[in-house]
Design brief:
227 residues; mainly alpha; two-stranded antiparallel sheet; 2 strands; 70% helix
């Protein structure tokens, strides 16, 4: 039976029941919980330091009103990083390769930033649709262009995360298949290809973390325009 390279992105199911909910909920059980003791172990200390540094970096450009989003954005960052990293393990499923899931994250959060801007400072929020000093004949065209660019933001967020992870997984599977095919015929070439596969895996680990950071960073930039 021929197996398609894209079968790895199909949502798993058992007896007709989708298992994507388990794949989404599982990462939360892997996070270490701080104990009641004053002195924590090294893992919790590193986790706390990372979250604090990330939150400070993310909230630095925002005013006090935007700091209410710190818990949400930090939690989303940790969630996406964990899911992306677990998806690199063999025989696992990566929920963030599903565009529907990524759009489910991007659209509500982007819409929340737009609603906050319209409620708190409607003049400034609408002013982003028309740059200052625009010639009068270009005003209708620029308003249409800026409106389209505003509405396309959540689509860009979801597609960027999906495309980068999907491309990485496909490339890893293609090179791994080439290693198994070349090993009996040309062992030297297979070893070189396996070395490339190892380096690509390291690159995909970096991509998994960077894409989660970019997703949350862009959300914070959209929030910065509206608070």
């Amino acid at each position: 039976m021929m197996v398609s390279f894209f079968d790895q992105f199909a949502s798993p199911s058992l007896l007709g029941i989708p298992l994507i909910a388990i794949a989404i909920a599982l990462p939360w059980t892997l996070f270490p919980t701080p104990p009641s003791r004053w002195i924590n172990n090294r893992l919790i200390t590193i986790q706390t330091w990372f979250i604090n540094r990330f939150t400070n970096q993310l909230m630095m450009p925002l005013n006090v009103g935007g700091h209410k989003w710190a818990l949400l954005l930090a939690s989303l960052m940790m969630f996406l990083i964990t899911i992306n990293m677990l998806g690199l393990l063999p025989y696992t499923f990566t929920p963030t390769t599903q565009l529907s899931l990524n759009m489910g994250f991007a659209v509500p959060l982007w819409l929340a930033t737009v609603i906050i801007g319209m409620r708190n400072q409607p003049t400034v929020a609408l002013g982003h649709l028309l740059p200052e000093g625009t010639p009068i004949p270009l005003i209708p065209v620029l308003i249409i262009i800026e409106t389209i660019s505003l509405l396309i933001r959540p689509l860009a967020l979801g597609v960027r995360l999906t495309a980068n992870l999907t491309a990485g997984h496909l490339l890893i599977q293609l090179i791994a298949t080439a290693v198994f095919v070349l090993l009996p015929m040309m062992p030297t070439v297979a070893i070189l290809t396996a070395t490339v596969l190892f380096l690509l895996t390291l690159l995909e680990v970096a991509v998994a973390m960077i894409q989660a950071y970019v997703f949350v960073l862009l959300l914070s930039l959209y929030l910065q325009e509206n608070v």
